[in-house]
Design a protein that fits this description.
Length: 701
């Protein structure tokens, strides 16, 4: 999913949830976790033909109501159970065909239910449908957790001789068995029962955490448009006073960002940020404590000192100590420069208020903009007219289509859960690779960050990859051009990067290691790298055209935007390090030593010079603390790799399909069939390192 946007609010995740999957204890994120959890199915009959896979209709076909969605989900879980039964009934020698294939099938079907119910619980416009979907998430998660603790299945898989199988199959089995052990399959029956119970509780507690965030859409009112002084005209026009003369604002991104960035009224910015940083407070304090406690208990039962030790073990970083060292490295490399940047903010504020001794959190975005305006002659408002939503969407499709040799076809009259949702097919020549959905504007009760949600992971011959982008961009209303911030454009590319990874990497045989099912701390790298394309003038000018005149974005404006972007980089990286430290610190010690308010209060000043904002509780809406738990550091870790991978591209011609093709083949297509370190090595022809990242941080690119 997306990064929490630095220096603003935890609401604002930038990139995308890669896979905000149903979290189950062992799998806070999507795929990365678990072979064991995510296998796919394979019916031989369908395997021969590409068209066979395509024959499975899009998942939302027929516009199911609550009852129909439930019964099709139950039917799919039954199919999964039948595959497990078939696997266990095998007599004699265990083979790939009689054991791995049905296991793959069982996992794919059960995962489909988990993915689809999680998506529906996050986006369906009807709250009764969402509640029903949440129940199905619990049921499917329990199915997967039980399977993961099924000793007979584990022994069956262990008995398969894969010594002569292909590399992806051998890697698949290695990961699967490892994940079974990590889930606790080796523990005694009593312990396994307890683990099952905790896993079930964790799903529900995680749902509570997310639901509290999703449903707490606070509003604030202002007495008249005078208080909106400084905000863009189109913003003011789309926020008309009600019959009582008052104007209502929400804390969702399309209102939040413009207000904290542009509003001249400091008290309005403060109120907005105060509400946003109290989202899901106080409800989520206890829910988060419960998550922390249960995860600790689970980790101890599984033989680890803390949850952080457990959850980092199968990542590139390897253990919690390395994660702490990495976060410390970020702190060391950003501190001095972050203080220098902060001093510039203070100096600018003192021009307005000579006696000012500090710049408050709700003033950072505002003064950041003013500094960029004065020192770099750049105002983000100037670029918005070049980013009307429809053109940006077309730009994302055209750019990635050119780079990766893909064709996207809109599915007309597709069944979708909301009329604003669009469905597409992705083709490579004559081969249908997958389908995707764009659900990109806010609605009440909808997931309010930006993320790529899985629907079906690809498994050749069995099912096409099917995924959804869920974001909250401007536009989508009649008469509203939907002028986007450049940061929205960046988010769009980021999330689309996850989508491409899922589809291009979803062409192999084994569903659980498809697409983004690579190491969790690598999974952001391809998406973060695609963000680089929205800083390239040549790329931008292919789609960033003025919504009134059609004129492409001027080169010098892009140049100014890039120079302005470098300012504040240390501060925002420091903020990311701080979020990473919060995420790790609440999970790397016994819960009786964790008071989340205190953790936040102690860490913030260690990382950032911006004074804490009193009476706020960022952790209650920091959604990653559920889905990512201790491993928020993964964004920065992935960024290190992303910067290095980008160094291999031709900066003069980013649309060159040759290098993009090699990247697609070497890094994206293998999905989770090989360790990420090896994929990156093959692409760069060397091990990755910190050089490009450090240069970027020091603005020496
Ligand atoms: Zn992401």
């Amino acid at each position: 999913m997306a990064l929490l946007r630095a220096g603003t609010s935890p609401l604002a995740f930038k990139g995308g949830i890669v896979h905000q999957r149903p979290f189950r204890a062992a799998t806070p994120i999507g795929h990365a976790l678990s072979t064991a959890l995510l296998l796919a199915l394979c019916c031989l009959a369908a395997r021969t033909a590409t068209a066979g896979a395509a024959a499975a209709p899009p998942f939302y076909s027929g516009n199911p109501d609550v009852a129909a969605f439930r019964s099709s989900s139950e039917a799919e879980l039954n199919t999964a159970q039948q595959a497990v039964d078939r696997l266990l009934a095998v007599q004699g020698e265990r083979t790939v065909e009689n054991t791995l294939v049905p296991y793959n099938e069982a996992l794919a079907h059960a995962e489909n239910v988990a993915y689809q119910s999680h998506l529906m619980g996050s986006v369906h416009p009807d709250s009764a449908f969402r509640a029903n979907a949440e129940e199905l998430t619990q049921v499917s998660s329990k199915f997967l957790d039980d399977l993961n603790l099924n000793h007979e299945v584990y022994e069956a898989l262990q008995a398969v001789d894969v010594s002569k199988a292909d590399d992806p199959t051998r890697y698949f089995v290695m990961r699967t068995l490892r994940d079974f052990r990590r889930a606790g399959v080796d523990k005694d029956a009593e312990t396994r029962k307890l683990i099952t119970q905790i896993n079930e509780d964790l799903v529900k507690t995680g749902q509570d955490f997310d639901r509290n965030i999703r449903n707490d859409s606070r509003k604030l009112t202002v007495d008249s448009a005078v208080e909106l002084d400084g905000l863009p005209t189109d913003f003011i026009e789309s926020h008309k006073p009600g019959s009582d003369g008052k104007i209502t604002l929400s804390i969702e991104n399309p209102d939040y960002f413009p207000v904290v960035r542009y509003a001249k009224s400091a008290s309005l910015r403060e109120r907005m940020m105060h509400e946003a940083l109290n989202r899901a407070y106080p409800a989520n304090i206890a829910v988060l404590d419960s998550l922390i406690g249960k995860r600790y208990r689970l980790a101890r039962m599984l033989g680890y000192d803390t949850w952080a030790d457990y959850i980092t073990e199968d990542k590139m970083i390897g253990n919690a100590k390395n994660a702490a060292d990495f976060i410390q490295r970020l702190n060391d490399t950003t501190q001095k420069r972050a203080r220098e940047e902060y001093a510039i903010y203070l100096k600018r504020k003192q021009e307005d208020d000579a006696g000012a001794t500090q710049v408050n959190r709700w003033e950072m975005s505002y003064y950041g903009r003013l500094i960029r305006k004065r020192d770099f002659d750049f105002d983000p408002q100037e670029v918005r007219p070049y980013f009307p939503y429809e053109s940006v969407k077309q730009g994302v499709l055209d750019v990635t289509s050119k780079m990766f040799g893909l064709t996207y076809k809109r599915i007309q009259d597709a069944a979708v859960w909301d009329p604003s949702v669009e469905a597409y097919e992705a083709w490579d020549g004559k081969k249908l690779l997958g389908r995707f959905y764009l659900d990109l504007h806010p609605r009440p009760g909808k997931f309010n960050h930006a993320a790529k949600f899985g629907i079906r992971q690809g498994a050749s011959g069995m099912q096409l990859p099917e995924h959804a982008l869920v974001c909250n961009f401007p536009g989508g209303k009649p008469g509203d051009p939907g002028l986007m911030e450049h940061s929205d454009v960046e988010t769009f590319f980021h999330e689309f990067g996850h989508l491409l990874h899922s589809i291009l990497g979803g062409q192999g045989r084994w569903e659980p290691i498809a697409g983004t099912a690579t190491e969790r701390d690598f999974v952001e790298a391809p998406s973060q790298m695609l963000e680089e394309w929205v800083w390239d003038p040549t790329v931008l000018r292919t789609f960033a055209k003025h919504y009134k005149t059609g004129e492409p974005i001027p080169l010098d404006l892009v140049g100014k935007m890039k120079r302005a972007d470098a300012f504040g980089r240390a501060l925002s990286t420091a903020t990311q390090a701080y979020y990473s430290a919060v995420s790790l610190s609440i999970y790397n010690r016994p819960p009786d030593q964790v008071n989340t308010d205190r953790v936040v209060a102690e860490l913030e000043p260690q990382y950032t010079p911006v004074p804490p904002m009193a009476d706020t509780h960022m952790q209650t809406s920091f959604g990653h603390l559920d889905g990512y738990s201790a491993v928020y550091y993964t964004y920065m870790w992935s960024l290190v790799i992303s910067k290095d991978m980008f160094s291999a591209f031709d900066k003069k011609n980013l649309l060159d399909p040759k290098i993009a093709k090699r990247y697609r083949d070497v890094v994206l297509a293998p999905g989770g069939t090989r360790p990420a370190r090896d994929l990156v090595h093959d692409f760069l022809k060397r091990d990755y390192d910190f050089k490009a990242f450090d240069a970027w941080l020091a603005d020496r690119e």
